[in-house]
Amino acid sequence: MKHLPASHVQPNDASRYSRRLGGLDPATRQEDPPGPVPEWCRTLIGYDLPAAIAAKLEYPDRTVVCLAGDGCFQMTLNELSTAVQHGANIVVIVANNGLYGTIRMHQEMHYPGRMSGTDMFNPDYSRLAKAYGCHGETVSSIAEFAVAFEQSIAADTPALIELRLDPDAISTDMTITKPRKARTEAG
Description:
- The structure is a single chain.
- The protein has helices at 16-21, 48-58, 70-76, 80-86, 101-110, 125-131, 142-154, 177-186; strands at 65-69, 91-96, 135-139, 159-164, 169-171, 174-175.
- It is an alpha/beta fold.
- It has one domain: Rossmann fold.
- Helix 5 runs parallel beside helix 8.
């Protein structure tokens, strides 16, 4: 998120994408204001969208970006209507790999190849955002992201960017096959 102003607000939740890309690196973490986010907030599934809306309403002049995995976003996606209703023009970035990735990672680490209840059937998030009255973008490659992000920042409405990702990718630094392979090799 190097193109964001230093004063941006970016809440994080439990998704692996949110935690990895969302500024938990101490060099990029935003803490002033709205202040340090308690660690327990980062373990809540679906926390980031309502938190982003609240942050934008509290700090209307700041850029607010909500970065969520698809599983976490599904928990509170109806709050897009709240953002539109109250003019909370946030940017939501949904990392869509079609999985509850953190849960799948643990299944693969402990029971390789034996998944249960972690595959998701997702809507077209861009179209869903538009149905709520938001600006919507879909990105399938890194080259498409910058333009989609700039258009979303410039939109005079809440905006959503759906990142369509490889289902094997459960975060920026982890694949499903990695823990499965490690566990299988370990016996």
